[in-house]
Design goal:
By secondary structure, the chain is α/β, with parallel strands linked by helices. The protein has 2 domains: 209 residues, Medium-chain alcohol dehydrogenases, catalytic domain (Quinone Oxidoreductase, Chain A, domain 1, Alpha-Beta Complex); 131 residues, NAD(P)-binding Rossmann-like Domain (Rossmann fold, 3-Layer(aba) Sandwich), CATH 3.40.50.720. 24% of the residues lie in helices and 26% in strands. Strands 3, 4, 5, 8, 9, 16 and 17 form a 7-stranded mixed sheet that branches. Strands 12-11-10-13-14-15 form a 6-stranded parallel sheet. Bound molecules: NADP nicotinamide-adenine-dinucleotide phosphate and zinc ion. NADP nicotinamide-adenine-dinucleotide phosphate binds next to helix 1, helix 4 and helix 5.
């Protein structure tokens, strides 16, 4: 099927209209018209080749909400008209221990990413959600629960699950003391989800500018991470800290904020770390961990949880032609708190 998208042709060219083909339906495929797509900082990293593995042209986008238009002959769970969603993965081996446990994001053979990844059948590079249509195998399609506003649900598919998964892994619930470093797309979802799970939530932001937002999002307080005295006062007061900062930074000041057995979980994909010292790790039996998105079953659980608790991202809706401006603003942390592309602004081919 012919479709339209927006692609970058190199690390230093802006995204521009790009015509391409979506594959013909395999028996287990679902085809959808994309209605909304969130803009994740990973899209920016990958369009600019920050991680060194981008294949051009790249069509980013992995926070996708749409409606089913057609299904393959073997598809049982979806029918045309269904409200559906796709996140960061579109395939995995489905055989290994991790896939069998529902942790497809940890597939031993590597999961197939929604964009800039190799299709497992043809080896072609996958193209993401900054486009009009998408074809994905049934197992990687999520159902958008009734009652979840389609125009705001898209960021849940990456920002939502990437913060929900570590909160669940580290058993966050009533009484947990959770810190969130960086109040951006992931950070604001971490706040809403942790608060929804009953935790006491603290935002660690570079300035006090987001003080009012912090409380409105459901957190209990904001700590200015550059205020040495405030940070000293908060020593040993967190069970879990979720670090969403998208650039290299010093972890040492944050490690002492953890209580005994506390964990600092990195979700920002920043590559080499500034040197952490072993002293706070050993003295407090503290841990540094990482976490990638979440499995498909957990993503559905998160969507259902958000529908039940009425948790939705704070979105700024843009038209597709504003995408390059949105990238620049995201780099300056000038978004509260997630850009979402209204795909009606992209004409069909
Ligand atoms: P974002 O919306 O741009 O938010 C990042 C936040 O970090 C900003 O709002 C800002 O918060 C803080 N920040 C920005 N620049 C900073 C700097 N120079 N120094 C210190 N703090 C800074 O980004 P996002 O979409 O949430 O993504 C965050 C990171 O997570 C990215 O690296 C992305 O690739 C990664 N990611 C990982 C996964 C995964 O599976 N692990 C999934 C999705 C995304 P304040 O202004 O409040 O300080
Ligand atoms: Zn993402």
């Amino acid at each position: 099927m012919k479709t339209m998208g927006y692609a970058a042709q190199s690390a230093d060219t802006p995204l521009a209209p790009f015509a391409f083909e979506r594959r013909a339906l395999r028996p287990n495929d679902v085809a959808m018209e994309i209605l909304y797509c969130g803009i994740c900082h990973s899209d920016l990293h990958q369009a600019r080749n920050d991680w060194g593995w981008t294949v051009y042209p790249i069509v980013p986008g992995h926070e996708i909400v749409g409606r089913v238009t057609e299904v393959g002959s073997a598809v049982a769970r979806y029918k045309p008209g269904d409200a559906v969603a796709v996140g960061c993965m579109v395939d995995s081996c489905q055989q290994c221990d991790q896939c069998r446990k529902g942790e497809e994001q940890l597939c031993r053979q590597g999961n197939t990413q929604t964009y800039n990844s190799k299709d497992r059948v043809t080896g072609e590079i996958t193209y993401g959600g900054y486009s009009k249509h998408l074809v994905v195998r049934e197992e990687f399609v999520l159902r958008v629960p009734d009652g979840l506003d389609l125009s705001r649900a898209a960021p849940l598919l990456c920002a939502g699950i990437t913060t929900y998964s570590p909160l669940r892994t580290w058993n966050v619930g009533p009484g947990s003391r959770v810190g969130v470093i960086g109040l951006g797309g992931l950070g604001h979802m971490a706040v809403k989800l942790a608060a929804g799970l009953g935790a006491h939530v603290t935002v660690l932001s570079r300035t006090a500018d987001k003080q009012a937002d912090t409380l409105a999002l459901g957190a209990d307080r904001l700590l200015v991470s550059t205020d040495k005295e405030a940070i000293k006062q908060a020593r040993s007061s967190f069970d879990l800290i979720v670090d969403t900062v998208p650039v290299k930074h010093d972890l040492n000041p944050y490690l002492s904020l953890l209580d005994v057995d506390g964990t600092l979980v990195l979700v920002g994909q920043i590559g080499p770390l500034a040197e952490p010292t072993t002293v706070p790790l050993i003295m407090g039996r503290r841990r540094i961990a990482g976490s990638p998105i979440g499995g498909i079953a957990e993503t559905q659980e998160m969507l259902d949880f958000c529908a039940k608790k009425n948790i939705l991202p704070d979105c700024e809706m843009i038209r597709i032609e504003q995408i390059n401006d949105a990238f620049e603003r995201m780099e300056l942390a000038d978004v509260r708190y997630r850009f979402v592309i209204d795909m009606a602004s992209l004409p069909a081919p």
